[in-house]
Amino acid sequence: MNKKEIIELQKRIGTKSDGFWGPISMAACIAHLKNLMPKPNPWPSPSEKDLLSFYGKPGDVSKLVNLDVAGLGVKYEGRTVRTVRVHKLIAPRLHSVLVELSKSHPNVLAEYAGAYNLRKMRGGNKYSLHARGAAIDFMAWSNGLRTHWPMGADMPIEVMEAFARQGFKSLGAVISRDAMHFEATR
Fold it and tell me: pLDDT by residue (tens digit) across 142-169?
């Protein structure tokens, strides 16, 4: 984003509009998204104990469903996707987000990058939320793990807001990178 776009984003999230994205803007963005979340938030904390209690063990495919996304414009590497494999507890709220985005941001859905994947976190020894079917990625090429949001990554704030309204956390907002990743944790 350029300075003008940062100023517009700062206005949207209710912080000083100076065109500089730093700790104050990051905190305001996190607060803005948290204010949009349902109360109480339906998802567990990211502690291993809470994740295990709520979602079960990583890789437990008995907890997964094939979420019907036919007609929503979800595409993986240019090919239409009819179902997305996710944890059964997140499916209804995730579907609501995807329906909303199909109308407002179809370009984002056209760059689906995955959901369930039995793998550890990149560079770590704990399992990713993807291993429980509780995370989804979009626009990976321009919103990767090491791409700073909003200065380098281009995930629209409106997409983060749509996920937040259903309780999903955006890593782009929370850690200012990995903006492709949305997870069902508090």
Answer: 998 889 999 999 999 999 999 999 999 9
- State which residues form the domain around 138: 37-183
55 C-beta neighbours (distance < 10 Å), count: 23
Looking up residue 74, the CATH number of its domain turns out to be: 3.30.1380
pLDDT of residue 125: 87
Q: Judge whether 10 and 16 are in contact, CB under 8 Å.
A: yes
Q: With respect to residue 154, please indicate whether it lies within any of the assigned structural domains.
A: yes
Tally of domains in the chain:
1
Residue 163 lies in a domain: yes
Contact indicator for 108, 160 with CB cutoff of 8 Å:
no
With respect to residue 123, please indicate whether it lies within any of the assigned structural domains. Answer: yes
**pTM (2 decimals)?**
0.96
Alpha-carbon separation of residue 124 from 46, 50, 119, 121, 138 (angstroms):
15, 19, 10, 5, 22
Among residues 180, 178, 149, 175, the alpha carbon closest in space to that of 27 is found at 175
Q: Is residue 15 part of a domain?
A: no
Only one residue has tokens 């776009």, namely 5
Q: How many CB atoms lie within 10 A of CB 135?
A: 24
